Amino acid sequence: MNIPNILTLIRLLLIPVIVVIHYLPFQWTYLVAAVVFMVASFTDWFDGYLARRLNQTTPFGAFLDPVADKVMVAVALAILIEKFDSPMMTIPGLIIISREIVISALREWMAELGKRTSVAVNFIGKLKTTAQMGSITLLLLTKGNELGEGLVGFAGLMLLLVAAVLTIWSMIVYLKAAWPDLTPFKEDK
Does pLDDT of 75 surpass 70? Predict the structure, then answer.
């Protein structure tokens, strides 16, 4: 057990905390849930930075880190889909969740072929994650139940739409990289 792995475990433990806080019957819960999500999001960046900087990458961390990220995003999006009850939230939310499932399966399959590096995280994926974390934080900060309400809500909605576009774009990049291994027959030249 090292510091990066501990941070990843903390991120996993914060997921039910965000859910419980969000549903507490107090006026301040939206603010606290957003702050807890933001802290959890920061651990995503920080644990990776420390693992590389301190040369503390482990197979356990390599497995758990993306799991924690995907579960955290999926749970937060589920909360927001229920909170806002709007196609403008549901459609991008489902796009993001679906992409995460597809790419996770693709990475697992490519790993079985010994070609996991061809679908390794790239800059678009990192940009997508940043947009997702930012949009979710802003949308959790939205006090009311109207999507796009106020400046924070509007910024959260716009960033969510950017995240959805980046989600599709990054999925296309990963699928394109894996396409030669996904097609059943190789063309003879």
Answer: yes
Tokens, residue 63: 């497995």
Nearest one of 77, 89, 91, 166 to 128, comparing CA atoms:
166
CA pair distance 3, 11, nearest whole angstrom: 12
Taking the model in full, what pTM does it have? 0.89
CATH 1.10.10.10: does it fit domain 3-176? no
d(CA 21, CA 187) in angstroms, rounded, equals 55
User: 164: helix, coil or strand?
Assistant: helix
The span from the CA of 150 to the CA of 173, in Å, is 34
Could you give the CA distance from residue 23 to residue 79 in angstroms, rounded to a whole number? 9
Question: What is the per-residue pLDDT across 92-131, written as a single tens digit (0 to 9) for each?
Answer: 999 999 999 998 888 888 878 777 666 666 788 889 999 9
In the chain, which ranges are continuous DSSP H helix?
3-23, 29-53, 59-84, 87-112, 123-141, 150-182
Closest by CA position to 70, among listed 132, 119, 141, 160: 132
Residue 18 in 3-state DSSP? helix
